[in-house]
Amino acid sequence: MTTDTEPVVEKPPVRRRSGLPGWAVQALVSLSAIVLALVVGAVLIIIGDEKVKSASSYFFAAPGDTISAALTAVGDAYQALLVGAVGGLNPIAESLTQATPLICGGLAVSLAFRTGLFNIGAQGQLIVGAIFAAWVGFAWHLPVGIHLIIAVIAGIIGGAIWGGLVGLLKARTGAHEVIVTIMLNYVAIYLLQWLLTTSAFQRPGRTDPISPIVDSNAQYPQLSGNRLHLGFVLALVAAAFVWWLLNRSTVGFELRAVGANPDASRTAGMSVGRAYTIAMLVAGALAGLAGTQQVLGTDLPLTDGVAASVGFDSITVALLGRGTPVGTVLAGLLFGALNAGGLQMQLQTQTALTLTTVLQAVIVLFVAAPALVRSIFRFLPRERGLGAVLAKGWNG
Amino acid sequence: MHLELSGLTKSFGSLVANDSIDLVIEPGEIHCLLGENGAGKSTLMNMLYGLLQPDSGEIIINGEKVVIDSPSAAIRHGIGMVHQHFMLVPVFTVAENIMLGREQTRGGGVLDRKKAYARVRELSDQYGLHVDPGALVEDIPVGVQQRVEIIKALANDAEVLILDEPTAVLTPSEIDDLIAVMRQFKEAGTSIVFITHKLKEVKAIADKITVIRRGKVVGQAEPSASEEELAEMMVGRAVELVVDKQEADAGDVQLEVRGLTVIDERGHTAVDNVDLDVRAGEIVALAGVQGNGQTELTEALLGLTPVAAGAISLGGKNITRAGTRERLEAGIGYVPEDRAHDGFVGSFSVAENLVLDLFRRAPFSAGVALRTGEIERNCEERVEEFDIRTQSITLPVSSLSGGNQQKVVLARELSRSLKLLVASQPTRGVDVGSIEFLHKRIVRERDNGTAVLIVSTELDEIAALADRIAVMYRGRIVGIVGADTPRDELGLMMAGASKQEAEVEATEHPTTLGSME
Fold first, then answer.
1. Which of A155, B278, B305, B491 supports an S-S bond with B451, CB 3.0-4.6 Å?
2. Are the CB atoms for A26 and A383 separated by under 8 Å?
């Protein structure tokens, strides 16, 4: 599944003045946004660096010291980031591990985007998926193979319920999905916190909110000697499935039509409400799958930090991935690499891990404001992509 | 005022919208700018009104070269414009709208309403443009709103008035009033640039006609030229303006509507107790001014809007409560009034749009999987059959011209076997060449035995297609008349007169356009 198998037909209209295909223009904008984010990050590294600070106290006497200190700081930090992300088998495995739930969560947001819905609720759907998967994982005891499959299915169902509820409410009552998903995120996190105080979930003998460790039969098998697990393969399968669903199935045809023009879809005899419900059901299932990857792949016991900020980062992954399955996988890999590399950077150069969060945020900021990126990189052609998706999501 | 445009050129990217256009407008002249949609008329006028800047060329007023870089500069030079879509504040009164932007105040910044009212009265008396200065714009009919726009331009002492497609929203009698007003301007020495693509109107009022095609002036014509000659200049080839059609061979009643009542979202009765029959093999045209319930009636037929009372049956089967998909599958084809809004998905390809309501059926899908090969093959066939001009079947439909977009919609609806075709404004915003084609296809569908219901606000279109005409006014059908009913009678019925009243009135007071027939 490479980008050139992606048919042009499903792209939003792009002014073809540049002669470049739509996806290439979008990729260029995304790349430019990444470069810009690295520049902003460099400025922050320089400001925060101790050596630069001391050298700048005698800046006018020897400006060269400040500049070389700054260059060293930036160079060291980014080198550590790069090495931590892709410098060898272990770093790569860690990057892929970090990317796994981001890809599934990103797909959950992307699929909803394409149906004209702004799914802010990947976090809640992921948490409910993790609750279901964890419970099946530690409370049941099943043979090898079957246990994992059942636990994963349970997680998918949990997420699907949480997401489908949103679609159903939207279809039946017109409740805005942004409000509903935000609220359901709160419900999910407090539900998790409460469950972890009940005897059904809390690990015997513990007073802190933590569940028993899931059975080894219910854990995703490791793919190598490190943390990388089978969930990563499932994430790629999920991406392929979403691609097929959107581009090669009647259901996806309906979802995309409703997302692009609900009025024309209704006139053509489609049920807009049904499309919203299906989209949110599948989106929730994908986020639930991300939840299983967290709890059955890396965390193993269920804690109230199981989702970390994966559900929210998924929104940025989907934004950067332009709502397409291929883009979402690439964006998920990038964010996974930044997370993995950030840890290494903090260890080696004392640059705060939060810098990677800043990088991610700045990337999305630039992607969401393509006009801004274009005004900096004049060579970029015009495009109509993400802004349209975003605006539609909010107005939907 | 003597206005001259010399060598005006404007391009957008690789598209040359205006290519070295020369135009002279003499004082007190009604100058028609005739051209198809997308020929470049609006671009030219927007340059004249300061909304666009020419790439090259000059605008010369009374022998002096001027630069018009904004609408306020245009107004300063005595150029006024009435846009196709009015620029009025609905919740303001007529007088407030007219003084907007040049408010006169008494001491302390208090608005001087009295003066504004007086100015409106003065202008409306002078030109016979009757408006109530104190009425709210949202309460007055579209024809009167247009008068407000015209008075607004006059209040700026316009010496050249640009009217962009001014008749599109008017009833036949309002068009007649507008023609009278334009003649008065002419006598007072005001020049008028009249932009249109309607041939009858051009012949009725123009002093001089300039025809524009693909951004170039293709020539001047006299008002005495025939409609066929004008159409040929406009399109660049001979066109049949009247569809060649046989007498209808009407069969059984296919669509039967009884006592249909629709209440719209605001609680108004949009369709009021309507009875209507359409038989197989005939075309019934629903005539009426925009906004008299035609939209709601067609939406009710398709199940897109709830029915408050009454019954609809198709081929003897009651479908009043059926969903849209069921009705489409029962054999209704639908060309919606606003194609970009309801007729297609703009970002979808031509191929995808051609199966928008067919993708669930064989051969376009097998189970839940789409068969893209079949969808593409279908597209190639339809593109060939309907002469849809597109560079590639993978291009989004939004990149096509209006006429080709409409062909996509009609091609899709006609590609399955129909009992009833409902086509609303089938040729709105479509070029003359495509109109000819679309009309022919609709007539051919009738000849295949399909019942056809056309909704149109254009009398020319109704005259071209209808076997019977139902006239709608304020949600009711005021009469069902033969296809040979004179234009003036239809116009009066569209304003609410009964058939008998209309007959009398039409013979006593013929209108300008009506008397041309």
1. B278
2. yes
